[in-house]
User: Which sequence fits this backbone?
């Protein structure tokens, strides 16, 4: 079966005056079918937004290294000429709701005008049919049609985020990348947005790459989870595997840091700070913060192991002979 999205050995490094920032460093993963959500979870600065930008190939001027392959429904897009990418892929097959997007509405333009802009620019619709399509989408994301004629400051944060999602869907993409779509919202509005995303998965068979620092929110929406640390994926698998049998010490710490409503345990904080990505630690990048690190972890980058079918972990622990882990080809 052709995967909806396959990312192979993707690198995005930035040049800054103190060196090259290894924001995305050899990331590979796949998102199989329509209507599935994959959560990319990690601390601030782990490279999540950079990964989204690399997949969309929306790169800043100071790129030092951009390499790898991105396949959308089998078609490689990382090396397509920019014009073809714009005409065939970006927004049509894959759309991005950027981090903080709800604050990037133009304050002097009505919301609907901004939602229909990609349709008008691409010449796919005239103003009247674009408006009809936008009103359908506003209704789909739970907004009244009158929002079309409102200005952004007349909407609440949750309404703006819904309008942003409608705008991403205007060209009917198969895949939407949502970068921290719930971070700036209070908990009850967060739940409304996650419920909306679950509905869009079902009703439109929309596939979602859900980027967040909050593993609890990701677990509500996502079928699969990938944990990112210092520019690398360190663990991935079905949401159930990652949540109930996490194999990487960092995933275990992330889960232990989630506050619980029931039970006596207090949330545990992850010791130390994320590394400087200009000089990632040698060996395992998590070793300075890992309670289980050995001498080998300090010098040799760990390979990828498969604790159980579908689950992968980048860590030396399985090699110590635990539980019949299988090394990944
Ligand atoms: N254009 C740039 N030039 C130089 N460094 C950059 C640039 N953009 C991002 N970075 C650095 O790349 C690293 C990864 O940043 P990125 O924004 O991808 O992380 P993130 O996981 O999305 O973080 P957050 O959760 O805070 O949004 C960080 O160290 C960041 O400072
Ligand atoms: S490879 Fe070593 S340092 Fe890294 S997470 Fe595993 S045990 Fe910890
Ligand atoms: Mg980010």
Assistant:
């Amino acid at each position: 079966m052709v995967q909806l999205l396959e990312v192979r050995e993707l690198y995005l490094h930035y040049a800054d005056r103190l060196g090259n920032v290894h924001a995305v460093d050899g990331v590979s993963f796949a998102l199989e079918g329509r209507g599935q959500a994959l959560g990319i979870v990690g601390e601030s600065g782990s490279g999540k937004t950079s990964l989204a930008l690399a997949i969309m190939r929306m790169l800043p001027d100071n790129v030092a290294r951009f390499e790898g392959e991105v396949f959308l429904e089998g078609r490689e897009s990382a090396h397509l000429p920019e014009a073809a990418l714009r005409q065939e892929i970006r927004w049509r097959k894959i759309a991005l709701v950027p981090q903080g997007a709800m604050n990037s509405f133009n304050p002097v333009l009505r919301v609907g005008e901004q939602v229909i802009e990609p349709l008008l620019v691409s010449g796919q619709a005239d103003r009247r049919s674009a408006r009809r399509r936008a009103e359908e989408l506003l209704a789909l994301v739970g907004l009244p049609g009158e929002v079309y004629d409102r200005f952004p400051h007349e909407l609440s944060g949750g309404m703006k985020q819904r309008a942003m999602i409608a705008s991403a869907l205007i060209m009917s993409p198969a895949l939407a990348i949502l970068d921290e779509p719930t971070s700036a919202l209070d908990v009850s509005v967060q739940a409304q947005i996650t419920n909306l995303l679950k509905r869009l998965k079902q009703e439109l068979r929309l596939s979602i790459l859900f980027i967040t620092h909050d593993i609890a929110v990701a677990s509500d929406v996502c079928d699969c989870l990938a944990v990112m640390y210092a520019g690398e994926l360190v663990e991935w698998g079905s949401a159930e595997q990652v949540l109930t049998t996490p194999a990487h010490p960092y995933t275990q710490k992330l889960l232990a840091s989630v506050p619980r409503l029931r039970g006596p345990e207090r949330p545990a904080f992850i010791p130390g700070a994320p590394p400087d990505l200009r000089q990632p630690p040698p060996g395992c990048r998590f070793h300075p913060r890992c309670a289980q690190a050995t001498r080998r972890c300090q010098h040799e980058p760990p390979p990828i192991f498969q604790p159980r079918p579908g689950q992968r972990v980048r860590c030396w622990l399985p090699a110590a002979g635990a539980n019949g882990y299988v090394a990944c080809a």
